Amino acid sequence: MTDIDNREPVSRDFDLREPDTREPDSRDRGGPRQPILSVRGLRKYFPLRGPLGTINAHVQAVDGVNFDVMKGETLGVVGESGCGKSTTARLLMRLIEPDAGSIVLDGDPIGHGGITLRELRRNMQMVFQDSYASLNPRHTATEEITFGLRVHGMSSAKARDQALASLRLVGLDPTVFADRYPHEMSGGQRQRVNVARGIALNPRVLILDESVSALDKSVQAQVLNLLADLKERLNLTYVFISHDLNVVHHVSDRVLVMYLGKVVELGPVDRIYRAAAHPYTRALFASRLSMNPAVRVGAVPLAGDPPNPVRPPSGCRFRTRCTMAEAVCAVVEPVLSDIADAHQAACHAVIPGSGHSQAEAIARAA
Amino acid sequence: MSATVETGNVASTPRAAPKRRKTGGFWRRVARHVMRDKLALVCTVVLALIALSAIFAPWVAPADPYKTSMIRRLLPPLSPNYILGTDELGRDMLSRLLYGGRVSLAMGISPVILATLIGGALGVTAGYFGRHVNMAIMRVVDVFYAFPSVLLAVAMAGVLGAGIFNSLISLTLVFIPPIARVAEAVTTQVRNQDYVEAARATGASAPRIIVQHVLANVTGPILTYASSLVSIAIIISSGLSFLGLGAAPPIADWGLMLNTLRQAIYVAPINAVLPGAMIFAASVSFNLLSDSLRTAMDVRA
Lengths: 366, 301
Description:
Chain A has 366 residues and is an alpha/beta fold. Chain A has helices at 3-6, 85-92, 117-123, 141-151, 156-169, 174-177, 187-200, 217-234, 245-251, 269-274, 279-286, 327-331, 357-365, and strands at residues 37-49, 55-69, 74-78, 100-105, 108-109, 124-127, 205-209, 237-241, 254-259, 262-268, 337-340, 343-345. In chain A, helix 4 packs across helix 5 (156-169), helix 4 packs parallel to helix 7 and helix 5 crosses helix 7 (187-200). Chain A is globular. Chain B has a domain at 99-282: MetI-like fold (Orthogonal Bundle), CATH 1.10.3720.10. Chain B has 12 helices and no strands. Chain B is elongated, with a radius of gyration of 23 Å.
C-alpha cells in the first residue's frame, strides 16, 4: 500500500480540500450542513423486450442507491464499466425516469410540493464524455450556450452576453471562438464549450460524466485545473464520474464506489484510497498500475467479468468474485453501514454482527 | 475534396469579432461546394434551362403547341420552320417539349415537396418520440410501403380518376412512406446524440428541441433523399400519363408524348425518342445534383 503515496499527482497548484471561506451563497437554503443533493432509494430497471414486445427480464442498472452530496464538495464516483455510474448521472438529471427513489435538492424534493423539473435542471447541469457528440454540429459555440438560457426565458441579447461571458470564464476568447462550429475546434476547446454551456445557467451542481476521460493527458490536466478554478469562483458542487482512479483521487473530497448497480463503499477520499473496507474497492485499487516499474502488479486482483445484471447473485452481488465470501453472503444482502467516521461500506466482513467470520474477529478484537 | 480545403480555410481565418452569423453559413457552404463540383454545376445549368424554358414557354416557343397539321405530320428534326420536327398530328415538337416541361416538372417537384412536408413531419415525430408514437406512425406507413410504388400510384390514380390533380395526389401518397422512413431513421439517430440529451438537460420542451436541434441535423439527409425522388416522380407521372391516368390529350406532357409517338417509332425514331430524352435529362440531372448535395451537406467532410 506504500506505493499509493508515491502516486501523488504532479500538479498541486490548487487544493480542493481547503476550508470553505467563501461568501455565503445567496441561493443557499438549508445552510452549509444540509446536503445539496440527497438521493434515496434510486432505482432503474431497464426492461428487456422479446421479439413481440413483451418484457422478458430487467437489467438492474441502478438498484436502491442512497447517497448525499455536500455543498461545495467534489464527490467522485468510480466503478467498472456497466456498474451504473452513468445511469445514476442520467437519473439525477432526470434524463431517464427513475422507477423509484427520491432526489432532494437542498431540502426541496423534485415534484409534488417541491421544485419543478425545470428548476432542478437550472440548478444542476451535466457535462458529457464525448465532446463532439455533445455539441450540435450545426450550432456555433454561442448558439449552443444561448439555447439553454433562452429556454429559461432570457432575451436573446442578454443570453448572448451571458454566453460570451461563459466562454471567457472557461478560457476561450469570444472574439475567436464565439462563432466557431464544433468541427472547427479541438477536443479540449470543445470540452470547454461544453463546460461553458453547463455553467451558463449558473447551476449549483455540475455532473461531470467522464468529462475528461476522452482528452489526452495534458489537455485533461488543463480542463481539471479549469474545473477546480470554476468551482471556487462559481460556488459549484461536483459529482465527478470517472473510471480514472488517479484523477478521482486528485479531485475528489469523497468517493463513492459502485458495483453492479449498488453503492458498495462511500467515504473520504483518503480513507477510500488508503484503507478501503470493501474487498471490491481493494481489488479495484490494486488493479491500478504503479508509476514505479519495480512495483509490478503480479497476481490478477479480480478474476472474471461482473455477473449478469439481469440476474444478479443473491445476497451480496460481489460474492461470486470475492475471496472472502462465506455462506452468509449468499443469503443476506449487506446494507451500506457506518464502519468508521463518515465511512460506509456494504460488506458483511466489516459489519459487526453480520454473521461473517471476519466481522466476528473484528468484534472480538475490539 | 474541395470541402476539406474549405474547412481548412474557415478554421485558419480568424473570425471578425462576435458578429451574428446565423445557420445561413451552413447553406452558403453547401452552395459553394455545389458550385465547385463541375458535374453538379452542369446539372444545375441543365435544370435551370429546362425550368426557365418551361416557365417562359409561351414566349420562347416558336409555334402553338396545339396547332395540328395533317400535311406536316412527323417531319424529321431540322426541317424548315420545325427545328425538332413535328409529331404524329403535325404539331411543333419543340413547342410541345417546352410546354410539356411545365407539366412534367410540376409533376416531378410538387408531389415531392408535399410528401417531404407530410412524410418529414410524420417521420421526425415518430423518430423523436419513439416507442408507441413510433409504432403507431411507422406501422401505418409500412402498410403503404408494402406496395410497389408504381403499382400504388396506378391504383390510386385509378381510384381517384384520371387527371393531373389526381395523379399529383397519388404521387404524393406514394412518396410519403419512403420519406417518412428516412426521416424517422435519421431522427432516431440524432435524438440519441448527447447534444439532444444536453438540450433536454436544460429543461427545453420537445417542440423546441425538435425545431432547434433536431431539424437542423435531419433536413440535410431528408432533402437529399427527396431530391433523388424528383426524377422518380417525373418518370412515374410520365408513366401515369402514358397509361392515360395523368395528363389527358391534347395537353403537352413528356410522358403523354412518349405514349402517342410510340406508334411512330419506326417511321420517325428521333421524334419518338425526344420526349424520353427530356425525361432522361431532367431525372439524371436531379439525381446527380442530389448526390452532390449529399456530399456538400456532410458537415464532417
